[in-house]
Amino acid sequence: MSRWKELPAELHPHVRQLIVRLRRLKDGSELSTRQLAARTGYSAKSWQRYLNGRSLPPREAVEAMARIGGDDPTRLLALHEIAVQRWAEGRAVTTGAPENPAATPADTPAKPQPHGRHLRLAVTAGAVVTVLSVSVALVLAVRLTEARAQLARDRDGAVATAPATWSESMVPVVYTCRLEQRDGRWYAGLSRTTDLLLSNTHVGLEVAEAQCLLRRAGAAPGDIDGVFGPMTRRAVERTQKRNGLVVNGVIDPPTWQALREADPK
Fold it and tell me: Matching InterPro entries, A to Z (predicted)?
């Protein structure tokens, strides 16, 4: 049985209860985090964050763990919905805490200020705001350039591993499909994988590759943004149904094969 780290003290009891249930299911499955990643499509690092209380697992991950551990997914998903609410409430309380009242200076009679001083203060404040705005714009531009460069490096030499998951801090990217046929299979120039599992909330070059192939097959996945969202899932389900595959909305090896065929049905 795993020796688990102590959960953060600030976790709500309902969130703590969900994580404890997930830990028990993992212990019962006797799977390592790498094996768990291979079975669920979520990376080993993601499961480490989920099971140590650093982030809340998505609904699909909880459902997958229930299937692996032989637990009732209905009860576990109901607990997950409550945990999501408590998690959001906890973040709102943390970010919305009031400032220390003691830091507010006591009211004192205001002394009349000369008109010239007021004008100088206004001009100075305007200059500070302008400098800050330009600085922020430059920082954002540099970070966006670095992010796009890193994505390009990953596309040129990365080895396919468990896909990342979406977060609000990610920089939006629009990919270009460069379709070409090799040895009777179609590729979009973003990934050559044929067996990586992709599902809801996954992001990256592999997702963009699948979106290009889905668009080629006429399944309309939406923007080629590398984000596995609802439109991409529906496009996958249509492709699976059209090719007589198991309709689960997950890009698995049979689905990859259907997408890369020269003449998909």
Answer: Cro/C1-type_HTH (IPR001387), Lambda_DNA-bd_dom_sf (IPR010982), Peptidoglycan-bd-like (IPR002477), PGBD-like_sf (IPR036365), PGBDSf (IPR036366)
Structure-token pair, residue 122: 């206004």
Per cent of the chain over pLDDT 90 is 40
Predicted TM-score (pTM) of this structure: 0.39
Residue 132 Rama label (left phi>0; alpha psi -120 to 50; beta): alpha
251 by DSSP, 3-state: which?
strand
> Which amino acid belongs to residue 50?
Y
Helix then strand then coil, % of the chain, to nearest 5: 55, 5, 40
User: Rounded distance, CA 264 to CA 217, Å?
Assistant: 7
Domains and CATH numbers, the chain: 13-92 (1.10.260), 148-265 (1.10.101.10)
Measured CA angle at 28 (ends 22, 34), to 5 deg: 70
Amino acid at position 95, single letter: T
Tell me the pLDDT band of 101, cut-offs 50, 70 and 90.
very low
Q: Which two tokens stand for residue 20?
A: 């404890």
Whole-number CA gyration radius for the chain? 25
Around 65, how many Cα atoms within 13 Å sit in the side-chain half-sphere? 29
Contact 84, 56 (CB under 8 A): yes
- Angle at Cα 248 formed by Cα 242 and Cα 254, nearest 5°? 60
